[in-house]
Amino acid sequence: MTTQRVMAIVGAGHVGGRAAQTLRETGWRGGIALIGTERHLPYERPSLSKGLLTGERAAAQCGLREPEAWREDDIEHVVATVQSFDPAARTLHLGDGRTIEYEALLLATGGHVRRLSIPGASEPGVQCLRTLDDAAAIGERLTPRSHIVVVGGGFIGLEVTASARALGCEVTVVEGGPRLMGRAVPAAIAASAQDLHARNGVTIRLNTAPRSFERRDDGTLAVRLEAGEVLNADSVIVGIGIEPADELARVAGLEVERGIVVDEALQTSARGVYAAGDVAVFPSRFGAHRIRQETWHNAETQARVAARNMLGARDAYRELPWFWSDQYDHQLQVAGEPMLGSRSIVRTLDSGAQIHFDQDGEGRLVGASGFGLASALAREMRLARMLVERGAPIGGAQLANPEVKLKSLL
């Protein structure tokens, strides 16, 4: 490790990698220390629950860049844990005893996967999905006719479910809530997604959760549900979300609120320390409240803004929240913050896909949620995102009428 002050990034995932790349592209010629606990170079996560499981993509194809690009940019990938940092002294302390002096620091620590605290949760074959290594381990278990229980009816759980069905597995989804995908999408879209999975042979159990996992003599798992039912499983995949990895910031005295609180420039409460990605709690573009986003788009765009601001800019992060989920041949997209809406307008497309537009009390578009065949939805949702981005009041009749082209409303 060099002794000069470097640009330090804690977290060598998507955010950390893209920020390191942007530092070089923006003109920083000093040292860059990209510190993470995984042996892998930075990679993107969307394929972990989809193409990587089905074999359509290889692990190498998930990489954020080619391996030689990191070497050519002289970005030092440090595989280590960070024990603590001192914002006043601008020093990082690694678990192996090393100390790094930094010019500016980016916390891109992401999140810790939530785990069940019930009997049998640590049994072999009960797995979570967060990393490349997790995906590799799960992929080995997704064999034709194997019985898979997916705990959690959110986006990750449903994407894994679709991948497992594509590989010929028998799948049961167990969701503790009354519907799939919680409050992240309108109830009608959740119902359509449930119907899609049912048509693809998935068994869905709502309003119940596992009580225990027990190993049988034949090596399979008995999944005992709160409702009393016992499911048979060869493997259990737990997808119940993540907790923001904000412990370093908390110990260092930064403002933390279920994530690391940042301003519009993504700077934390400590000068010269920034945070981005899954761990960052940032100002909403729709009001005075703060939000946290666990999405590819958020990682990609915040990384670039944070890197420029580490170099002295004061760019404000004003990107519209947006994410997508691929399930079978269907796609779900959500743009903006639909939960801020007080009125919903449904637009049904010729293909049967639907877009739900959400308006606030002043008629301003604050969100759009779409679900349907990916081939039919993509273009319309691109236009819907642009409409939400502009936030102008639009008549509900125009939004609902498929004869009125969305492009004409821009």
TrEMBL record:
It holds the Pfam family Pyr_redox_2. Residues 8-303 form the FAD/NAD(P)-binding domain. InterPro entries: FAD-oxidoreductase/Apoptosis, FAD/NAD-bd_sf, FAD/NAD-binding_dom, FAD/NAD-linked_Rdtase_dimer_sf, Reductase_C. This is FAD-dependent oxidoreductase. GO terms for cellular component: cytoplasm. Gene3D superfamilies: 3.30.390.30, FAD/NAD(P)-binding domain (3.50.50.60). The keyword Magnesium does not apply. One of its GO terms (molecular function) is oxidoreductase activity, acting on NAD(P)H. Residues 322-410 form the Reductase C-terminal domain. Keywords: FAD, Flavoprotein, Oxidoreductase. Its cofactor is FAD.
